[in-house]
Amino acid sequence: MKISLSSQQPTAVAADIVAIGVRTAKVDRDENLSRLDRALGGSLLGELMKDEGFEGKPGQLVKLAARGRVKARWILLVGLPAGESPSQQARRVAVSVARSARGLKTAAIFLPDDSPDSARAAAEGVMTGAYQYARYKTGSRKPKGGLRSVTLLASGSEGELVPAIRSGRVVAESINVARDLVNGPPNDVTPVTMAEAVAELAEKYGVKCEAWNKKRLEKEGMNLFLAVNSGSAVEPRLVHLSHVPEKPVRKVVYVGKGITFDAGGLCLKPPKSMVDMKCDMAGAAVTVGIVLAAARLGLPVEVHGLIGATENMTGAGAYRPGDVISSHDGKTVEIINTDAEGRLVLADVLAYARGLKPDYMIDHATLTGACMVALGPWTAGFFTGDEELAASYQAAASHEGETIWRMPLDARLRKTLDSDVADLKHTGASYGGAVTAALFLQDFVGKTRWAHLDIAGPAFLEQSHENSPKGATGFGVATGVRFLETLAREAAQ
Ligand code: BES
Ligand code: MN
Ligand code: ZN
Fold first, then answer.
1. What is the set of domains in the chain, with CATH numbers?
2. Which of 32, 27, 71, 68 is nearest to 50 (CA)?
3. What is the average pLDDT across 440-466?
4. Are 94 and 126 in contact (CB under 8 A)?
């Protein structure tokens, strides 16, 4: 998709569709709308909006046939919620126009201001909004065409806006890479093929990539990770991506849960809970997206991505409830429920990651159904004991329009992980399941500054919601990139 910049008026731009964000149905209350209205003759827009029942409510869309009154063929009015920043408005309008323009070739987006931030968000929005997963569709089921070229209408400085558009493109492509990995069916995206696909992407973008096989994991004593793999016919992989710039100002390790299919192991899931369990490697996919973006944007931060990839299956060698297994850092863990596999993989990978001595360690995992019970499908649970990290991660998320919600690492629940036979058990009390999962992870991070994002809800949606499509969303990539950019900017000051 080509994305270009123009200072033309929305009335003068030649495109199949021109989109504009609207916060009211009263044309004269909105400067941009009244300008458009004047170009349309002075009263037509209000009448059309009335005929179409457009009130400017959040999420409301109206596609009006321009019939020669402006140069574009269609006008798309996008209702916006109150109180959002210009860049969030730009992102919403861009996502909407990309979705509404499936049969069209060219679009223009009128930006709410001339800031680089809005241009970036619009570029990101139009490319993520156009996303479709079509790999397995054939013949007439295969979607054709789609937007080829998009013009962003703003009159800011080209020197600032053009690089911003490029950043938006990089973030969007990274989000879409993550979505493709998650949407890929579990017989196609296995730990082995995922590691290969990631290595290919890494090579393409100049990122270092190393993958450990089962033998190497045995040598490194990653027995919790291997226990989860023990019921699977496919080998596990630990993939290590690294972006190491010349003079890094900080070092961050991202860790991702990469269960390419979670059957639950011997504590088998019921069919309804199993059906979308290809999504259980979304943490890994987000991690890949963040590292690739960091490298492509040339961020002066050393960024590592570690993904623990395996299936959780029921084969004859499968690990059992009651087993006691020792971790990479030498703790013994009593297995309670084999469906709580993610924290076992993460425990070993986090223990290894802390050895890289990062300034920050951030993990993403579709870890618990309990987190969805607590927060619903659109919000990630955010756990950290570090107030500074909390503030800056939350600021990054809110900038990117991703909802994360701080959850407590309630130390009182830690005793429910005490075991009679081992150092600890891996599941705790029945209430507070997202918290006890996070508390289990906390035992493996040592003194490293750490945050955990439980993305079980927002990583994969049953229905599209706001800017996110149905299925894989790539949730977490944009926030992760924004966090790294902020670190770099603050270190430079
Ligand atoms: N992968 C699941 C969590 C999940 C559920 C992700 C729904 C996405 C959507 C995880 O491995 C799991 O099975 N967790 C168990 C933990 C329990 C056995 C302590 C759960 O949430 O039920
Ligand atoms: Mn599970
Ligand atoms: Zn799982």
1. 2-132+148-153 (3.40.220.10), 171-492 (3.40.630.10)
2. 27
3. 98
4. yes
According to the model, what pLDDT value does residue 472 have?
99
Q: Model confidence over 1-26: pLDDT tens digits?
A: 999 999 998 889 999 999 999 887 78
- Decide if 456 contacts 438 (C-beta within 8 A): no
Q: Using alpha carbons, list the distances in angstroms from residue 292 to 207, 286, 383, 471.
A: 7, 10, 24, 22
- Judging by DSSP bridges, how do beta strands 2-6 and 460-461 pair with one another? unpaired
320: helix, coil or strand? coil
Best probe residue, ligand 1, of 339, 425, 439 (max atoms within 8 Å of C-beta): 339
Ligand 1 atom nearest to 368, measured from its CA? 21
Question: Taking 90 as the threshold, does the pLDDT of residue 67 lie above it?
Answer: no
Residue 54 pLDDT grade (very low, low, confident, very high; cuts 50, 70, 90): confident
Spell out the alpha helix ranges (H) of 52-186: 86-100, 116-129, 158-183
Residue 270 DSSP code: P
Residue 337 CA to ligand 2 center (angstroms) comes to 9
For the segment 237-257, the average pLDDT, to the nearest whole number, is 98
Measured CA to CA, the distance from residue 256 to residue 290 in angstroms comes to 11
- Range of weakest confidence among 43-52, 114-123, 251-260, 309-318: 43-52
User: Closest ligand 1 atom to the C-alpha of 369?
Assistant: 21
d(CA 190, CA 168): 30
Neighbours of 469 (CB within 10 A): 20
Measured from the Cα of 366, ligand 1's closest atom is 6
Residue 368: per-residue pLDDT: 98
User: Length of the chain, please?
Assistant: 493
Token pair, residue 488, equals 């770099």
Question: pLDDT per residue over 473-484, tens digit each?
Answer: 999 999 999 999
d(CA 436, CA 179): 28
Cα–Cα distance between 149 and 161 in angstroms, integer?
17
Which amino acid belongs to residue 25?
Answer: A
Given pLDDT bands bounded at 50, 70 and 90, which one contains residue 45? Answer: confident
| 17-22/74-79 β-pairing | parallel
Known catalytic residues are 269, 343
Buried b (16+ CB within 10 A) or exposed e, 276-297: bbbbbbbbbbbbbbbbbbbbbb
Distance 135 CA to ligand 2 centre (A): 27
- How deeply is 55 buried, as exposed, middle or buried, from its count of CB atoms within 10 A (0-12, 13-18, 19+)? middle
